[in-house]
From TrEMBL, chains A, B:
Keywords: Magnesium, Metal-binding, Molybdenum, Molybdenum cofactor biosynthesis, Transferase
Record function comment: Catalyzes the insertion of molybdate into adenylated molybdopterin with the concomitant release of AMP.
Cellular component aspect of the GO annotation: cytosol
Organism encoding this protein: Candidatus Syntrophocurvum alkaliphilum
NCBIfam families in the record: molyb_syn (TIGR00177)
Name listed for the protein in its UniProt record: Molybdopterin molybdenumtransferase
Magnesium found in the keyword field: yes
SUPFAM superfamilies (alphabetical): MoeA C-terminal domain-like (SSF63867), MoeA N-terminal region -like (SSF63882), Molybdenum cofactor biosynthesis proteins (SSF53218)
């Protein structure tokens, strides 16, 4: 009873799932909707940005050489040739010893090669501007194409699109683009003892915590979810439920009640599907060894432990990485007790972070591992890798933060 | 022209806005929808969790004292009294030298005070179980109320709800709760030179980058946004646009074209509203000095610089903190050049992070500050505070990461 049929280590578990994930479909979205998606095309600019030599300050467009030697005590005198409107191309050409008022963002007139900031100038009557500080050529000017070059590949497929990327895309006039669709993920809790959260459990029963923690952790990273009714420990009921969820999703995340019996039954049902292939049954990690993954056709079913704390930890350490949440928020901290660890097993231990004068301290929360309140109280977790024999008090550790 | 009327330092700017923010409304949401919201009530449990003494393993429920002295070579012999189903209350009482099979999550029978893991047992025939390892009282058992106590305040108003909190709430049967509504935020870009992104700019014009970067940075933290049409530098048009946006939102974020003229006009229009009160006009930061905040009635208008890079940086450093995004992802890194900084001014400098063998290095991206591609290429920014005179090559700095 409850033997693990194919135990793998943590790294292999991640690799096995990644290698067998369904192909991602692509879709076209508007620029704003592309946020937090992975780009599925290369983007080439068809324009120079800026499209013209552009002033970065309010001031006077000049020939730089005409300002050389200007100082507070001995300014240069330039002829004022008028003011440029922000959205206009200048029709006035700047000749030696001439200047033109130009607003920030304005287009540099022909003949000018720099801009003197208004702070270092003074208008003298209608026709003359005093220059108190010299500028060098190109000073306070962004050259045509300096931000983005025409025909430049500005982004390559595979990047995760962030606000400033959207800024670059907006600047070159990209209004829609191809991104990868996120997986549709179905969630099923199983087990005779599990009852809906709105129901008062009788003695021996427990509420369906897992559907909610799994759904919210996935929702947080922007996935599309579908929650299915709790499935009892009944072969036919379970099979129908899995069939339906598989037909409506790319991935299925199940959590297996807390008993080995439920897990065994779930595995039986999963392997009864045509094309079912067990990728692994058991991962050498703590907590969460009773985790299994079965490939059915081109879809993947991940069976997490039933225990709510283990299930959520496995979601963080196994499911989020395979869903491409690579840049989990990490921080370095000093561990404040010795933590032994079994060689050959990857340990993940929730910690509380405390700011001290000398830095950040991580206190492992190693009470009864069954307590969800303990995980709720944690700021993150540390990862003791399989090769390590543990960590020693005072050692610097990497903390993966929950927020 | 373009004088700053009331320049404040960075800390005061944040405080001034925070002190004048509209009161937050509360709303009732379902448990799953409460994710990433701020709790607006205290939550008190009406139940003990677990509601019964619960086994954390598959094994045999025993009186701990009956297992003392058991070892591989000399096991204890206990009488097997049957198996407990996962969702059932045991009707069998455990007496001395008796044991009962119990699954993980099962309810401890009366008389038992510990559970021996199945790995350390062997069933001998129908009636006897060998115990190869002793357990202490309470071992492998979560006591009734150990996770959550009846009448315990499990969460207090003000916390940001994360997946494991949702787990705790699910465990005690909370299906809906009071959270603070996020602010509705209107976004208006202004300036004669700004054209919609789908339009090809003529010489002197530039696309509306700011609406998209501001909207996506706010969307990323879960805010409700409304984008308004670009407003030209026209007093009446601007006034109508602001009136409409104020009536439909709690906050209004404007970006002011790139010229001082546009900013001056925007300020005039804002101050023309009854009950308008200028909180500040100018912040001693780089980049982004030309930032202003006006309170109109109980609403707040934030005028960001028109320059896209400055506008987005100000959004990150000024707007996100006041919207309660406190736990920005930070990492420590070694700065790889000297960076001087003007005392009395807070400097924010984009950096690229590079992983080296000795740790993480931060390389400031200090080319022309006007380049959005530069910000798109940055991994985060560092903050040189007003009291600091700069940072020195090799110093450890805190990097605020964009992801």
């Amino acid at each position: 009873m409850g033997e693990f049929l194919k135990v793998v280590n943590y790294k292999d578990a991640i690799k096995l799932i990644k290698d067998n994930l369904p192909l991602k479909k692509t879709k076209t979205v508007t620029l704003l909707d592309s946020l937090n998606h992975v780009l599925a095309q290369d983007v080439v600019s068809t324009e120079d940005i800026p499209a013209f030599n552009r002033s970065t300050v309010d001031g006077y467009a000049v020939k730089a050489e005409d300002t050389y030697g200007g100082s507070e005590s001995s300014p240069q005198f330039l002829d004022f040739k008028g003011s440029l409107q922000i959205d206009q191309e200048s029709v006035i050409k700047i000749n030696s010893n001439e200047c033109l008022w130009i607003p920030t963002g304005g287009m540099l007139p022909v003949g000018a090669d720099a801009v003197v900031m208004v702070e270092y100038t003074e208008k003298l009557g209608d026709d003359t501007v005093l220059i108190f500080k010299p500028v060098s050529p190109s000073e306070n000017v962004i050259q045509k194409g300096e931000d983005v070059n025409k025909k430049q590949t500005i982004f390559t497929s595979g990047i995760n699109i962030k606000p400033q990327d959207i800024g670059v895309l907006a600047s070159v006039g990209i209004t829609s683009l191809q991104v990868y669709e996120k997986y549709k993920i179905g969630i099923i809790s199983t087990g005779d003892e599990i009852v809906p959260i709105e129901q008062k459990p009788e003695l021996g029963q427990i509420r369906d915590i897992n559907s909610y923690t799994i759904a919210s952790a996935l929702k947080k990273i922007g996935n599309t979810l579908r929650l299915y009714p709790i499935a009892k420990d009944d072969y036919n009921e379970l099979k129908l439920s899995i069939e339906k969820a598989l037909s409506e999703n790319d991935l299925l995340i199940m959590s297996g009640g807390s008993s080995v019996g439920t897990m065994d039954l779930t595995l039986d049902v999963l392997l009864s599907f045509e094309e079912a292939q067990m990728l692994f049954h058991g991962v050498a990690v703590k907590p969460g060894k009773p985790t299994m993954v079965v490939k059915i056709g081109d879809k993947i079913v991940i069976g997490l432990p039933g225990h709510p704390v283990s299930a959520l930890m496995m979601l963080y350490i196994l499911c989020l990485p395979i869903l491409g949440v690579s840049s989990i928020n990490t921080i370095e901290a000093v561990i404040d007790i010795n933590l032994p660890s079994q060689a050959g097993r990857d340990d993940f231990i929730p910690v509380k972070l405390i700011q001290t004068e000398s830095g950040t301290t991580a206190t492992p929360l190693i009470g009864k591992s069954g307590l969800m309140t303990l995980l709720s109280n944690a700021d993150g977790y540390i990862h003791i890798e399989a090769e390590q024999q543990g960590v020693i008090k005072g050692e610097l550790v990497k903390v993966y933060k929950f927020n």
